[in-house]
Design brief:
- With 296 residues, the chain is of the alpha/beta class.
- The chain has two domains: 7-31 and 155-285, HAD superfamily/HAD-like (Rossmann fold, 3-Layer(aba) Sandwich); 32-149, no CATH class.
- The chain has 14 helices and five strands.
- The chain has helices at residues 7-10, 32-47, 54-66, 75-88, 90-94, 103-110, 117-127, 130-149, 159-167, 180-189, 207-215, 231-240, 252-269, 274-285, and strands at 18-22, 170-175, 198-200, 224-228, 243-246.
- Strands 3-2-1-4-5 form a five-stranded parallel beta sheet, sandwiched between helices.
- α10 links the parallel β2 and β3.
- α2 crosses α3, α7 (117-127) packs antiparallel against α8 and α11 packs parallel to α12.
- The longest helix is centred in the middle third of the chain and has 20 residues, at 130-149.
């Protein structure tokens, strides 16, 4: 009998009036830099034969995944963006490097299917497409590297104290696009699992599904807050009719301190309104440009 991976969210028992939904990588934990710089990017260079332009591949990948408005993108969509940036970069063309077109991967993404390894593996088996097979090998290699490399990474300062404070008044769930096993391991390493009700990773659906299933008809939407470090988190919160609090990339400690001292109280008092939220989001988005530095 197949296990329903979404059951913990579907069967969530409401214990508090408030619900707080928290992203993991780059939001609660200082793991985005090591994950991308030591795992994703070396695998991109290795599996897609970008050694001749490794410096530029690294710069493009860091921009897309860490320092731009596409921070938090699905890994396969981000990979295509990286290839496109490299194709448009004159200094890359001067070196005669062949940037993969990955046509099969592009077609798979355009079909709007679920973009994860199991879905990709099924498509590889069905089609035998070499681009998809290469993408699957790359993605599996990334997962191996993450399991080997990403451990002992601490939460940002103030996060454990904030979680303890929130748990007194709110149900908390973790909402991540990473693998469940990875997210559970990181939270367990720092003994934070008892503070949260559910840890939801990509096997339990998209972040939008996590939020929808958790809120369901249990919580008033004005009593639900999503905390994230990606513009995509903000869009999911807005589309779901709940509040969003951004964790500013590069200023994470200050963001959590502000949340502890100001925003949490406003939220629980019902005073964290759209005007306050939008001011914080404007500051947040100002840190994540659309244009890479070499095009400015």
């Amino acid at each position: 009998m197949m296990t329903d991976r979404q059951a913990p969210l579907k069967n969530l028992e409401k214990r508090k009036d408030f619900l707080v939904v928290i992203d993991s990588d780059g939001c609660a934990f200082d793991s985005m830099e090591i994950t991308h710089k030591e795992c994703f990017i070396p695998a991109i260079i290795k599996y897609w034969d970008l050694q001749p332009v490794s410096r530029y591949a690294r710069a493009a990948a860091e921009f897309v995944n860490l320092y731009s408005r596409w921070r938090g993108s699905n890994r396969f969509e981000a990979l295509i963006m990286i290839f496109d940036l490299l194709e448009e970069w004159p200094v890359v063309a001067e070196r005669g490097a062949v940037i993969p077109r990955a046509k099969g991967l592009r077609r798979w993404i355009e079909r709007g299917t679920v973009l994860d390894n199991p879905a990709l593996a099924a498509e590889v088996e069905r089609t035998g497409d070499t681009d998809l097979a290469r993408a699957l090998a790359w993605s599996a290699g990334v997962n191996v590297a993450i399991a080997d490399m990403v451990h002992g990474v601490p939460p940002f300062p103030h996060v454990p104290e904030v979680l303890g404070m929130l748990a007194d008044r709110a149900d908390i769930i973790v909402c991540s696009g990473a693998q469940c096993e990875t997210v559970e391991r990181v939270w367990a390493e720092h003994r934070l699992v008892p503070l949260v009700r559910v840890i939801a990773g990509r096997e339990m659906g998209s972040k939008a599904e996590h939020l929808s299933l958790a809120v369901s008809d249990r919580y008033d939407r004005d009593k639900v807050l999503m905390i994230g470090d990606s513009p995509f988190d903000g869009r999911i919160a807005t589309a779901s009719g709940v509040r969003f609090y951004p964790i500013n990339p590069g200023r994470e400690t200050a963001s959590w301190e502000r949340f502890a001292l100001e925003t949490a109280g406003l939220f629980f008092a019902g005073d964290y309104d759209v005007t306050i939220q939008d001011k914080l989001v404007q500051e947040f988005e100002g840190l994540l440009p659309e244009t890479p530095p070499w095009q400015r």
